[in-house]
Amino acid sequence: MTEFIVWPYQLLVPAAIEANVVPFSRSGGTTLGGLQRVTRTDRGWWSIVYKGVPLKTAADRRMFNALGAHCSGMAAPIAIPVWSHDSAEWPAGSANGVILTPHSDGTHFDDGSLYSQPAIGVTLIDAAEIGDTSVKLRIVYGIEELIGVRFSYEHALYKTGYPTLIDGTDWTVPITPAIRAPIPAGADLEFGLPTCLVRLASDREMDTSFAAGFFDSVDVAFVEAADYWNDLAADS
């Protein structure tokens, strides 16, 4: 898979995030009773807004400017994190989807550091193919249920619905949007800090001002880079 620049989630942390799937539906007109008949023709695409991205220091502004230069308006895709702790509670002691743990005997490395591992462990039971709208997941650790949570695999972002089958730690759940690219059986999925491949929603999303007090904050809107997944599927 192509390597993409990932938004620096430890430096430019938005005050709030709006991450929503935009449904794709078609209306067949109204019935005799005046009600509108709507049919879903696609599982939609992600619309994400970073609200209140802080620009406190010159380093913040340099990083923000560099990201803007990379994106070149709507031209270049970028992977952005969509924090999951609103619906998938991170285990105690974890941050940004990662937890630090000692050796099995409770000791640290010689330099005092700890192991770093995902805060939440979930794997895919059966391989998922492009266009699939349901997946079988296995809880390994760090989470108790898989209803209405976000996860990603190689920067393709998904949200689970209400489960159709629960068998111990194995869950069969519908997802939206549909699978963007194949995921092999046994793959580790990112539930702690999922990411989404996006483009800027407009060419001027990363315009900034220079406040007299230096501190400033900006809102940045993104849309899922669905064209990338379409091209990838066409070439496979």
Instruction: Quote the beta fraction.
Output: 35-45%
CATH topology title of the largest domain: Elongation Factor Tu (Ef-tu), domain 3
- How many domains make up the 3D coordinates? 2
Task: Write down how many β-strands occur, each being a DSSP E stretch of 2 or more residues.
Answer: 15
Shape: globular
Mean pLDDT equals 87
CATH architecture name of the largest domain: Beta Barrel
The parts where pLDDT drops under 50 for at least 5 residues are none
**Under the CATH scheme, which class of the largest domain?**
Mainly Beta
Residue share in helix: 10-25%
**Secondary structural class:** mainly beta
Radius of gyration: 20 Å
Protein architecture, described:
The protein is mainly beta. It has two domains: 1-83 and 193-236, Elongation Factor Tu (Ef-tu), domain 3 (Beta Barrel), CATH 2.40.30; 84-192, Elongation Factor Tu (Ef-tu), domain 3 (Beta Barrel). The protein has helices at 58-71, 226-235, and strands spanning 16-30, 36-55, 78-81, 94-95, 98-101, 115-118, 121-124, 134-141, 150-153, 156-160, 165-167, 170-176, 188-189, 195-200, 216-224. Strands 7, 8, 9, 10, 11, 12 and 13 form a seven-stranded antiparallel beta sheet that branches. Strands 1-2-15-14-3 form a five-stranded antiparallel beta sheet, covered by helices on one side. A hairpin with a 2-residue loop joins strand 9 and strand 10 (156-160). The model has no long low-confidence stretch (mean pLDDT 87).
